[in-house]
Amino acid sequence: MHKWETLKIVLIAIGVLVIVVFNAWLFTDKEPDLLDVPETEQAEKPVPDFSSFENVNKRKAAFYQYLKPEIEKQNEYLLTLRHYVQTLKRQVSSGHEVAAKDSERLSWLAKEYRITKDLSLPQQLDALLLKIDILPVDLVMAQAANESAWGTSRFAQQGYNFFGLWCFKRGCGFVPSERNDGAAHEVAKFPNLSRATYTYMRNLNRHYAYKELRQIRATLRNNQMPITGYALAEGLLNYSERGAAYVEELQSMINFNQEYMTE
């Protein structure tokens, strides 16, 4: 092979690697600053060995039974925060000043959900309400099943990472066995299920890559329509390099596994 052709192939490979790593950096929060994470009683329990279930239906049932309480707990927390912001909004609209303790907490929320300081107080509250909201259990379940092979991946088994979240600080997680040479990312490792689920939900709720998901959710809420996983999946084109194919697969999983949601 001519040396220039060889060089061309190498440059193309490097270009592809740069794009993959850049996309992962772009669409995943790098270093979560978890300050106020609600934790369930089962949060630190070992992840069940889902691969031990030979029957697929039993494996799925066990998977849903393990994750569903945690997802519901995190959604309850989000609704509590949302109600708090709504209360502040009513106070401000009525001309009342925000108390010092509320101002401090509001500053924390603005930082946690990446609200720009250039906005006025009413605008900050509106921006927070757009970001602080629930994520349907069926959507979270579908992503967790898809990203962790129904909880059997080593990242889920050893680090509670059911959502394919990356980190970029050396030693922050697992080094992927198929990571390309020169790549610096790791698959994030969490101390418990609550931290992992909180980080995943916060990522969807605050990262600009998932702005469309939040807009779909706000439209549904404003029109008093159910906030469904099937609808919000349309806003996850950037979660995977597969784009539309990934969204379609999630929607198919949501439809196909509805029976487990009621168990």
TrEMBL record:
Q: Could you tell me the superkingdom of the organism this chain comes from? A: Bacteria
* Pfam name, any one: Glucosaminidase
Give start and end of each Mannosyl-glycoprotein endo-beta-N-acetylglucosamidase-like domain.
129-257
Q: Where does the chain cross the membrane?
A: 7-27
Coiled coil stretches, renumbered: none
Q: Which UniProt keywords apply?
A: Membrane, Transmembrane, Transmembrane helix
What is the protein name for this chain?
Glucosaminidase domain-containing protein
Which organism was this protein described from? Alteromonas aquimaris
Q: What is the lineage of its organism?
A: Bacteria, Pseudomonadati, Pseudomonadota, Gammaproteobacteria, Alteromonadales
